[in-house]
Amino acid sequence: SQQGEEDPQALSIQEGENATMNCSYKTSINNLQWYRQNSGRGLVHLILIRSNEREKHSGRLRVTLDTSKKSSSLLITASRAADTASYFCADTSGTYKYIFGTGTRLKVLA
Amino acid sequence: KAGVTQTPRYLIKTRGQQVTLSCSPISGHRSVSWYQQTPGQGLQFLFEYFSETQRNKGNFPGRFSGRQFSNSRSEMNVSTLELGDSALYLCASSLGGLAGQYEQYFGPGTRLTVT
Questions:
Q1: B99 contacts in A (CB within 8 Å)?
Q2: Cβ separation of B106 and A93 shorter than 8 Å?
Q3: Quick check: A30 pLDDT over 90?
Q4: Closest chain A C-alpha to B44 CA, distance in angstroms
Q5: Distance of alpha carbon A20 from alpha carbon A8, whole angstroms
Q6: CB A61 within 8 A of CB A55
């Protein structure tokens, strides 16, 4: 299977804490994207990091990319209850399809 | 701009039947992708269309097919339904180009239950 994997599969933290989740992908990517899915808003794009970038920030999100290890991490700082969701990475290899990881289920406790 | 819409939102079918799902992309988006989401397999890519042409296909049997119309709206069809086809089917649109070049915008999905 080409499917990547997120680690951990599930994460539970207190509001205000930081949450870190990791993604291992299998292809030789052009870009890597992170998505969030919750019951209220469905699947939503969070951030895109290109293969020639090592780190990218967007608000409370920080994404890193290590192409030599085929891994990426997503850090959410100062988490809120509204961040409770599943988080997926999606890698793309120069074709026209996205390969989504298995996802990390994040629960932020108020 | 209106978001990606999918119809119907919920569907119950019997084994052996066929089903057609519809997706209307965001205005101006020419690429439409379809995914199947199940608890066991996660998000699996089905196929992607751009300007009425299928550019890539996932590892699904031939019972799964799709098409795209000149207005970029897309349909997917599943024939001879099996119990294992029960899933959330998601449609996503983007401007097009190589995968990853642009973000994808997802619809709310169609929940298909096969009994």
A1: 30, 92-98
A2: no
A3: no
A4: 7
A5: 9
A6: no
The three-state secondary structure class of A70 is: coil
Q: Which residue, among A18, A14, A43, has the nearest Cα to A103 in the 3D structure? A: A43
Convert the pLDDT of each residue in A9-22 to its tens digit. 999 999 999 999 99
Token digits of residue B112: 């298909």
The answer, for B108 touching chain A at a CB cutoff of 8 Å, is yes
Binding-face residues of A in 21-50 toward B, CB within 8 A: 29-33, 35, 42-45, 48
CA angle centred on A4, ends A32 and B98, rounded to 5° = 40
DSSP state of A51: T
Q: Inspect the interface and report whether the beta carbons of A97 and B109 lie closer than 8 Å.
A: no
- Encode pLDDT of B43-56 as tens digits: 999 999 999 999 98
